[in-house]
Design a protein that fits this description.
Length: about 425
Amino acid sequence: MKILVVGGGGREHAIIRALKKSPACTEIWCAPGNGGISYDAVCKDIKATDVEAMVAFAKEEAFDYVVVAQDDPLALGMVDALAAAGIPAFGPDKAAARIEASKVFSKDLMKKYGIPTAAYETFDDAAKALAYIRAQGKWPVVVKADGLALGKGVLICEDEAQAEEGLKEIMLDKKFGASGNRVVVEEFLTGPEVSVLSFTDGKVVKPMVSSMDHKRANDNDTGLNTGGMGTVAPNPYYTPAVAQRCMEEIFLPTIRAMAAEGCPFKGCLYFGLMVTPDGPKVIEYNCRFGDPEAQVVLPLLESDLLTVMTACTEGRLAETEVKFRDGAAACVILASGGYPVSYEKGKEITGLENGQLPGEKDVTVYHAGTALQGGKLLTAGGRVLGVTATAEDLPAALAKAYAAADKIHFDKLHRRSDIGKRALKAIEAQA
Ligand code: AMP
Ligand code: GLY
């Protein structure tokens, strides 16, 4: 099979490396890809959001299968457009992608089908939203832009002034464009967060190994929210008891709800969960693999990713095995200093050979923001690399990932030194 992966970050690199293990994968491309990905796939510089150009290119190159890995092309209906052109693709169609693309859609879905989530109201008027928040008088309160906002459309407001300022930015100043035409105001929940990615063909759902993201820029969960500074898998808070409740109260009801609404979800459905004192609740759904969750989950996948993906597309997931191996994985993100605000690009990256660390067993370097120029590997984004290690347990995986990360250098490199610390404490507490 000749395969195209749409996107250009660490997640796409992880998907490509996993797909390449499949004997059925004979040729693999990535659009737009990046410098480091070009060691593993042929890169074609087409914007992931340019649906028309991507479909035309897919037809021209006669791809057998396309994996749309990024949220915005999914929300724009790239899978629908590919299907119309006769090209099967992994990922939800436009109607099903609303589960991530519209918070109002996903919250209303959960309410209608009794899926546990934070209590909320939706508003299309900033003054009415503020009046509601004032009347509630409960702090902190969470304000979310309805649409996609590069992961930055969620505000935790500690007081009225912050709520007023947040509503102004989202709804009046339109900081996130049309994504802020409506907002969801919701109850603040507490508890550890768990990410569970799952495969689904719209009928059955098979969860992957659980994971934990580290969203804040700096150690001890301080600093601004980022796309994710590191991940570990499995997540110790996802105990067998929690997993069972999630399956019964969240995963199956969500798959059935989407089918009942006439928009069955096929692809990777990401459950962003919080294990609250009242049980697991949904914080958000994503309509795709997480980044950098994919960088710890896929290295632990024992089954053939291409087989599982095509089973999702073709509605054959029930009879397809999805198996993960025992052990753990850890991913440490190497970012450009200043990320997620402003940072410099074009710094030379040293320590790698053909994009990888030679001689490191069980370590993979996933490229998020790199460029190749005159044979040199340069930084080209906020998140630059993800260094993943797998091992028999989490302490060993973390030690290996950090030891490997120590061998990679570029000017103003920033990374967190405490990835997995919270998970290790939870494991100790459980022992
Ligand atoms: P989201 O983009 O919806 O995942 O939100 C980003 C982050 O904001 C989440 O990972 C949580 O840490 C936090 N968050 C979102 N909603 C809530 C909530 N209702 N209560 C507490 N924290 C939340
Ligand atoms: N790491 C969070 C996300 O992919 O949305």
